[in-house]
């Protein structure tokens, strides 16, 4: 498969990408990392450009990514992503940005890391040996894109593969970051108010040995800044559970 490492995980939290690679290789998959055809700067799907209204620039980034991954997609190779907002942009906005067979095929073959693993497990094709972790309980926060696309179930199914781990989903709305919204000074207070509705109180109430899991980059940083706790991407949790 193709492992799509978005800008957030490439530059800010590369440990997530390394963990995902370790898990996929442990399961016996051959992993390709896409490179730009023009040999220039690393690929970007353009999510942040779209969020800021730079549609033409986002379309240019989409074309670069398509050039790099289309040869794989044409052969039916799935493209696996780590950051919900980045990967689901390929499923949602790309067919509108660049209508055509290539983006339709990409949208069909683009899966979140945990979606891919859950589907392989359901099909009886996942060969991944996992062991119990020192932690026996985990709290899971869903990114808004995961909720909007109804793929939180895949997170829960994937985490259920870890022996003896009890996983509870935090009944929360948006963490308050909403992409770049919470990073802007004029929105800081509102962002924190949103986080304080459900997410941060649940995190503060969690025992120290409770795993905190969130796949969204901004969600993890809101948790760290607002509650002083580290939340991990599911790829890191699975990597730690490799037998």
Plain-language structure description:
The chain has 243 residues and is mainly alpha-helical. The protein folds into 2 domains: 2-119, no CATH class; 130-240, Rossmann fold (3-Layer(aba) Sandwich), CATH 3.40.50. It is 50% helix and 9% strand. It is built from 14 helices and 6 strands. The protein has helices spanning 7-11, 14-26, 47-51, 55-73, 84-92, 94-97, 101-109, 113-122, 144-148, 152-159, 188-197, 199-205, 217-227, 234-240, and strands at 2-4, 79-81, 110-112, 137-141, 166-169, 211-214. The strands form 2 sheets. A 3-stranded parallel β-sheet has the order 1-2-3, sandwiched between helices. It has a 3-stranded parallel β-sheet with strand order 5-4-6. The longest helix has 19 residues, at 55-73.
Net shape: globular
- The poorly predicted ranges are none
Strand order of the largest sheet: 1-2-3
The total count of helices amounts to: 14
Query: Measured on Cα atoms, how large is the radius of gyration?
Result: 18 Å
Order of helices and strands: EHHHHEHHHEHEHHEHHEHH
What's the overall average pLDDT, rounded?
A: 94
In short:
By secondary structure, the protein is mainly α. The chain contains 14 helices and 6 strands.
